Amino acid sequence: MAASIFLSFSDNPVFKQYATYAAVVTLKMMFLSAWTAKHRISQRVFINSEDTPGKPQYVRRDDSVERVRRCHRNDLENIPPFLVLGLLYVLTGPSVSAASWHFRIFAASRFLHTVAYLTPLPQPSRALGFTVGLIINVSMAVQVIMSGQL
Ligand code: GSH
């Protein structure tokens, strides 16, 4: 039976799992904003002239900052879809075990992607992180579509 749309931590263990992993990956994604800011300040690499008054030479690009930004952008391409698809998937009433494996593997894949991008680790480690997360999102989307009516 499909899960109730009125979800809470106490009465739906699958939603509890979803909420926990959603918070973890969202925090990880938000961390990359702070990490970008840290790199900008320590490398003196600013994007706007008002961020470095009187020092226009610091309005420049730098690969260490761009790398963190690319990593963050990749999270933005993958984590919001997880948040939407994961919630819809919870509403299809999956087993706790199947759902937790989806959420766990997605979270692990995004941590692998981040570590591989920022270290950087040799490919295909980053591609693996990206691909596994993508497969999980596709799997949840397919299950949502299959449990609905087109
Ligand atoms: N928007 C991505 C891109 O332009 O590369 C789509 C494909 C993708 O996400 N590829 C992964 C990646 O880490 C695995 S190679 N791409 C680098 C990036 O998004 O900066």
Textual characterization of the structure:
By secondary structure, the protein is mainly alpha-helical. Helix content is 71%, strand content 0%. It has four helices and no strands. The chain has helices at residues 13-43, 63-91, 96-118, 125-147. Glutathione is lined by residues 70, 74, 77, 126-127, 130.
Topology summary:
Blueprint: H1 13-43, H2 63-91, H3 96-118, H4 125-147
Helix pairs in contact: 1-2, 1-3, 2-3, 2-4, 3-4
Bound molecules: glutathione.
Membrane topology: Multi-pass membrane protein
Pfam family, one: MAPEG
GO molecular function: glutathione transferase activity
Briefly, what is this?
It is a multi-pass membrane protein. This protein is mostly helical.
Number of separate helices? 4
Rounded average pLDDT: 94
* Secondary-structure element series: HHHH
In one word, what is the shape? elongated
Largest sheet, described in full? none
| Low-confidence blocks of residues | none
Query: Approximately how much helix is present in the residues?
Result: over 70%
Radius of gyration: 19 Å
Q: What structural category arises from helix and sheet content?
A: mainly alpha
How far apart, in Å, are the first and last alpha carbons?
A: 19 Å
- Proportion of strand residues: under 5%
Q: Would you report the number of β strands?
A: 0
Bound compounds, each kind once, are: glutathione
